Structures are given as structure tokens and as C-alpha cells.
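Support reply, case 0932

Customer input (verbatim):
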Amino acid sequence: MTRARIVAGALLGLAAVSLGAGIWVYRRLHPPQAAQVLRVSGNIEAHESLLSFNVVQSRIVDLPFDEGEWVKRGTLIARVDDSDYRQQVRIAQAAVAVRERSLAVARRNVEAARRVVSSDRADLAYRTVNYRRLERLVPKGAASRDSRDLARTALRQALAALERDQALFAVAQRNVALAEANVRDAQAALKLSRIIEGYTTLRAPFNGVIMVREAELGEVVGPGTPIVTLGDLSHVWMRAYVNEPDLGRVHLGEQALVTTDNRPGERFRGRVSFIAENAEFTPKTVETYAQRVTLVYRIRIDINNRNHELVPGMPVDARIKLAPVPPP
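Our regenerated output:
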């Protein structure tokens, strides 16, 4: 009986060894397939712009939106008291009018100087003809030398008058150029004052949602003072982290399905658009040392948020289809 038990035990042991060897051989020939889908968790982020007034400093008189409200591109976000800046525009307009009148006077002076020069040339031509005629008559005794000398003096005076008035004409032309430059300068100052007046209104640069309202109605603000933070929900992404063993199977452009507890049953399509090159510690607010030494890689998943259901800070999950593991 004892011998039979020994033989039975030996057979059972041999069977167990054979079974183990068979399992080992099967696993070597048929290695288990790694999971084809990676599930990650993270939060929604979006492009955010901190809006502030440029150049101007005044008191806020209009602040129609509160946090969480939607605004369209071009919508008035805030407005400050613009009375001082409107007055600067009126002063610049008056300066332009004065410079334009000065230009008109300068142009009339040029025209008058041109007519004087034309008259001088005609007078010089007459004096020249008269002097030459007397020059021919004096040797013949038909004219006196005194009349010839007077004609020569008159010719010289006419030439001097022409040169003087030509110089005045050149000065008048330079005055026109200067007046034109003054008009351009005044017009540029007017344009600048209108641009600065336009800075008294703050408008949304894109469709978005008011994330944070930094200022209050009646507050005096200066250039660069934050007014609101505007989030662009048309371009949102998910920040997530993957472990090092899965990193080699996640590639740029991989498709992902994103879900959130706030909208059960809905699926949002996304794609992997960024994979960090360097590892970092697991990002958690409270963590133990064991968790702290765990290194992960940050990835970004761009999400189609056409209807703006996803908002910054919302927790979401994503399922990423991994590349298959190559056979050994």
C-alpha cells in the first residue's frame, strides 16, 4: 500500500512538472498581448488671454460681463471714461485746420511770387530791347549817350529785381513744402489721438468665456492693468501623463476618445499633439514618497470642442489606441 502511494505521488509530481513545462513552452511560443488601449486621466486646458487697456489711464465706466459669461469676438468687454481723450482729438483736429490754412496761404504766396517773377522777366526783356536799340542809335547820333546810360541802368535794375523775386519765389516754394510737412505732422498727431481714444474701449479678440474678472466698475486702471481673463474654448486640450513602459507605444497623431463624468455617454474625438521629451514627477497635490519617485511623461491631446461643452479645469478621461508590440 505504501509503495502504491509512493508511485502515485511520483506520477502526480511528474504530471505537474510536465504541465508546468507545457505552460512555459506555450507562453514562450504565444506571449500575452499587451493591452491595445491606454486609459489616461487629466484635466481640460484652454488658450487664455489676459485682457488689459493699452496706453490709457482712466476710470472704468462700463463693465457689462461677469465670470462665466460668453462673449463673441468684437464684443465690448470694458470701457473707461474717455472725456480727456476726446478733448485731445478735438485739439488735434483744430491743429490740422490751422496747418491747412497756413498751407493755403503759402500756396497763394507761391502763386503771387510766380506772377511777380513773370512780370520781372517781361520788364527785363523790354529793358534789354530798349538798351540794345539805343546802343545802335548812339553811334549814328540818333540818340544821346545819357539816354543810353539810363537804359543800361534800368536794365541792370530789372535784372536785379528778377534775381530778387526769383529768390523770394524759391523761399515761397520752401514755405509750401514746410507747410505741407506741418499738415502731415498734424494729421499724424490726429490719427494717434484717435487711436489712443480707441484704446478707451476693450473688446474681445475672439469668441470665448470670461474666466476671471480682475477689475470692478469705477476702478481707476492704467496701462497693463488686468481687466478680464478670456478663455478660447474653440481650442482646448487635455493634459495627461503616461508611464515610461507605455511611452514607446504612444505616437504623435494617435487618435483618442475623451469622456467626462459631466456628460456620460458622450465621446469627444481628439489626437495626441505633444509628447514631452523629459520625464517628471507624478503631479499630485498630496503624494507619498513612493508616488513621488514615480516618473511619468506629459502628453497633450487636442480635442474637438465644437459646441464648447468642455471647459478649463474639467476632469476627463481618454482612451488612446496604442501601437501593437512587435514580436520578440
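We compared this against your earlier run and they match. Two observations from our side: Confidence is low (pLDDT under 50) at residues 29-34, 285-292. Residues 83-137 form the longest helix (55 residues). Please reopen the case if you see a mismatch on your end.
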